[in-house]
Write a structure and sequence with these properties.
Blueprint (H helix, E strand, L loop, with lengths): L1 H15 L2 E9 L8 H17 L11 E15 L2 E11 L4 E11 L16 H16 L7 H15 L7 H13 L1 H20 L10 H20 L4 H20 L3 H10 L4 H6 L3
Parallel strand pairs: 1-2
Antiparallel strand pairs: 2-3, 3-4
Helix pairs in contact: 3-4, 4-5, 6-7, 7-9
Length: 281
């Protein structure tokens, strides 16, 4: 009976979690072979923790994929712990986060758990989880990720004052940079809203009076692009988002005869300028 209950609770927890398909790769070229066993154990614990932890009780079944590349720079002893000096490269659908100089205490068999306090092993993964959760929620409502950006920011502030402060000042700045770029955050939201509106209208007909919502959203999207170019001309995550959707965005603006917007995009996003230029008539 107890075993059945554990299985049921595990299934329920998995369904409520925010992250799925967490892929972790390791670079251990700087690590001596006798330390590989503890790092491989650490890798499995990271995957278990992120996939099975409920980071938000109200935002469930999101199935956000994560690719995490960990560079282990060194392993040293600190009391009963091994101390891992690491760098992280993390990406999902349309967001990349790079974090260097992370110092993490770990021992084989250590289990991580979500708490309200700063914990030097698990809190860095809470920080990453909250940022990617916030980014996802921004696509559901305007600036909908604020709560979780604030949680990531709080972790970074606590990390700066902890016994393991390495890299937390930089992580605080990164969180603020993503959160403060409201033009990109709104751009993402307006784009996803446009796609929902198109699906609901089944097809695009510029003479259709029912497309008033789409045209209003396109106007908002145009404003977002203008302000991104004006205030964030080199934002990597903006270009990452455009790399993913350049063809669809260009086709839609072309169909709606918004040629000035295509020219604006072509000047802003030089890597995809040929795509935008194809739809300028």
């Amino acid at each position: 009976m107890i075993k059945k209950l554990i299985i049921i609770l595990s299934i329920i927890s998995t369904c409520m979690c925010q992250f799925s398909e967490v892929e972790i790769t390791l670079d251990m070229r700087s690590v001596k072979k006798h330390n590989h066993f503890i790092i491989n154990d650490f890798k499995e614990e990271i995957k278990r923790y992120i996939e099975n932890t409920i980071f938000s009780q109200s935002d469930t079944d999101l199935e956000i994929p994560l690719n995490i590349h960990v560079i282990i720079e060194s392993v040293s002893e600190k009391g009963a712990f091994k101390t891992l000096s690491t760098q992280f490269f993390i990406n999902s659908w349309d967001l990349k986060v790079f974090s260097r100089s992370a110092t993490i205490p770990y021992y084989k068999g250590k289990s991580m758990a979500l708490t309200g306090n700063f914990e030097p092993t698990s809190s860095i993964f809470d920080y990453f989880a909250y940022i990617f959760l916030a980014n996802e929620l921004d696509g559901w409502s305007p600036l909908g990720g604020n709560e979780f950006f604030n949680k990531a920011e709080k972790i970074a502030l606590n990390g700066k004052e902890s016994d393991y402060p390495n890299g937390w000042e930089n992580r605080l700045k990164k969180c603020k940079k993503i959160m403060e770029n409201e033009y990109l955050r709104k751009f993402r939201y307006h784009w996803y809203e446009i796609n929902d509106a198109i699906i609901n209208n089944t097809q695009i007909d510029i003479e259709d009076e029912n497309l008033i919502d789409i045209t209003n959203l396109l106007s908002e999207l145009e404003n977002d692009i203008y302000y991104l170019q004006e205030f964030y001309p080199n934002d990597r995550n903006a270009f990452l988002f455009l790399d993913r959707y350049a063809n669809e965005i260009a086709e839609l603006f072309g169909k709606m005869k918004m040629y000035d917007t295509l020219i604006l995009l072509s000047n802003y996003d030089a890597d995809n300028s040929s795509i935008y230029n194809e739809f300028i008539k």
